[in-house]
Design goal:
Layout (H helix, E strand, L loop, with lengths): L3 E13 L5 E9 L2 E7 L1 H4 L3 E8 L7 H9 L5 E8 L11 E2 L9 E7 L4 E3 L1 H5 L35 E3 L3 E13 L4 E5 L9 E6 L5
Antiparallel strand pairs: 1-2, 1-12, 2-11, 3-4, 3-6, 4-5, 7-10, 7-12, 8-9, 10-11
Length: 209
């Protein structure tokens, strides 16, 4: 069955394998998460589990969520996410999900919001080439031609200057290098999206064999 958990990006470091090679890893605080709702085919039309992460002050929770947490007798949490499962009967409201659901060698997909870089031109955002650097060219880092004259409009999806970053990005097939069950920390080989302290979703890779 697919496994999933919410976590926080702590940062990057490196560890050394048995062969002495340095392995770049991202340190993730994975959980602990709590099951806040269980959905099934009879009542909801599909099997899913709603998971909460990071305790939150009750004063910062709105009334609908207060009722939702009170129904399951759960402490308020800051983040809620839903994961599809094959059999929701395996879960109970209030059940904890910790980092030890993953093992060393597992392949995971990590989803997060990429770092925001503000307004960027086409060279930084899309990798465009630049014009001549001499003084007389008057064309250095601009967008350039936008297409045919006939339509007399800019086509949707054109690569133009604009906001860069803060996009939802999933990095697939990352390998779990180490699991610290006591501190709920997992080490994943490679980089994951987002700045430090960013919220991450870690799931079993959909493309792993």
């Amino acid at each position: 069955m697919a496994k999933a958990i919410l976590g926080t990006k702590i940062g990057m470091t490196q560890i050394f394998g048995e062969d002495g090679k340095a392995i770049p890893v991202t340190v993730i605080q994975a959980g602990p998460c709590v099951v806040t709702q269980v959905k099934n085919n009879e009542t909801d039309g599909y099997n899913a589990v709603q998971v909460g992460y990071k305790e939150q002050k009750e004063s910062r929770i709105n009334k609908p969520l207060k009722g939702h947490f009170a129904k399951g007798q759960i402490k308020p949490v800051k983040f809620l996410r839903e994961f599809r499962v094959e059999n929701s009967a395996d879960f109970k409201v209030g059940q904890e999900i910790k980092a030890d659901i993953f093992n060393v060698g597992d392949k995971v997909d990590v989803t997060g919001i990429s770092k925001g870089k503000g307004f960027a031109g086409p060279m930084k955002k899309h990798g465009f080439g630049r014009g001549p650097e001499t003084h007389g060219s008057r064309y250095h880092r601009r967008t350039g031609s936008l297409g045919a004259v006939g339509p007399q409009r800019v086509f949707k999806g054109s690569k133009l200057p604009g906001r860069m970053g803060t996009d939802r990005i999933t990095v697939q097939n990352l390998q779990v290098v180490k699991v610290d069950a006591e501190r709920d920390i997992i080490l994943v080989k490679g980089a994951v999206p987002g700045p430090n302290k960013a919220l991450l979703t870690i799931k079993t890779s959909v493309k792993s064999k």
